[in-house]
Design goal:
This protein has 320 residues and is α/β, with parallel strands linked by helices. The chain is built from 11 helices and 14 strands. The protein starts with a strand and ends in a 5-residue tail after the last helix. The structure holds adenosine-5-diphosphoribose. GO terms for molecular function: L-malate dehydrogenase (NAD+) activity.
């Protein structure tokens, strides 16, 4: 059987980490694409030289030509620019929208059968725009946010309860950003809901609220520490988990930014919800009953995503 092909659009910090992880796990041969000349080629060469030490045979190549992503099974998109001081949200939207247009066309022309995972921010708007520009089916274009957000939530909860992260199953809904909705009712430690652990005196509502707040600001906390960039290890490993679920037809239920139509009261919007990921991509959105507070918070998140889409349509008339 031919090896799978993984195309990484954007060979920056996340792109390079994705390439390393994909090679170590031998998900397939890896093509790093970037508009910057030399960067994808240099990173591919450097990473190939890990092969003899780490024992992987995955072939890594770097390119500035979309033709080289031809036939990719999975495409992971990190191309774009991060928000810089003095840049408004609309400035960032405008720049990254243009990037999504170029990337969407590249995918449409060279890898139309791929499963596409978008990481570029602002995530919920960018994954929507990428789907629009690429014209791929909705089930084949998803955004990575919830896996990362729930990993952050789980990390902080494991520290709070002094338990292994392996026993924490965290649940986060909504858009990727300040309005994300960590749901404590469905967040468990070895099957025990966090709300029950609070009742059992293992923590307090105030401390859990603090953790929820820290999770919402999890990306910003890392930006403030790094100063010159944003998180890349955990975002990359989150997207790799999604790629593995697709390639292995694992039917994992992962929180992802997916196109939701007819569930959660939505009539066609990309937002973070639990979804079954298998060989058909985003196979089924799982609608869970929400209590009034989670419903209200989810609506705030949905409204924030909708507002971003309005701004995108104003910037690029072809999306209207
Ligand atoms: N086509 C391809 N690559 C592009 C394009 C484009 N049109 N425009 C920019 N790039 C490349 C840059 O050259 C750079 O190598 O995208 C890469 C982005 O890498 P970094 O700046 O290192 O950013 P990274 O930390 O990897 O994050 C990427 O993910 O989490 C989000 O907010 C983050 O949107 C950002 C993205």
């Amino acid at each position: 059987m031919a090896r799978k092909k993984i195309a990484l659009i954007g060979a920056g910090m996340i792109g390079g980490t994705l390439a390393h992880l994909a090679a170590q796990r031998e998900l397939g041969d890896i093509v790093l694409f970037d508009i910057a000349e030399g960067i994808p080629q240099g990173k591919a060469l450097d990473l190939s030289q890990c092969g003899p030490i780490e024992g992987f045979d995955a072939k890594l190549t770097g390119t500035n030509d979309y033709a080289d992503i031809a036939g990719a099974d999975v495409v992971i998109v990190t191309a774009g620019v991060p928000r810089k001081p003095g840049m408004s949200r609309d400035d960032l939207l405008g720049i990254n929208l243009k990037v999504m247009k170029a990337v969407g066309e590249g995918i449409k022309n060279h890898a139309p059968d791929a499963f596409v995972i978008c990481i570029t921010n602002p995530l919920d708007a960018m994954v929507w725009a990428l789907r629009e520009f690429s014209g791929l089916p909705h089930n084949k274009v998803v955004g990575m946010a919830g896996v990362l957000d729930s990993a952050r939530f789980a990390t902080f909860l494991a520290q709070e309860f002094k338990v292994s992260v392996k026993d924490v199953n965290a649940f986060v809904l909504g858009g990727h950003g300040d309005t994300m909705v960590p749901v404590t009712r469905y967040t468990t430690v070895s099957g025990i809901p966090v709300d029950d652990l609070v009742k059992m005196g293992r923590s307090t509502k105030e401390r859990i609220d603090e953790i929820v707040k820290r999770t919402r600001g999890g990306g910003g906390e890392i930006v403030a520490l790094l100063k010159t960039g944003s998180a890349y290890y955990a975002p990359a490993t989150s997207a790799i988990a999604m790629a593995e679920a697709y390639l292995g037809d694992q039917k994992r239920i992962l929180p992802c930014a997916v196109y939701v139509e007819g569930r959660y009261g939505l009539d066609g919007l990309y937002v973070g919800v639990p979804v079954v990921i298998g060989a058909n991509g985003a196979e089924e959105v799982i609608e869970i009953p929400l209590d009034d507070e989670a419903k209200k918070n989810f609506q705030v998140s949905v409204d924030a995503v909708k507002e971003l889409l309005v701004a995108c349509k104003q910037i690029d008339g072809s999306l209207a």
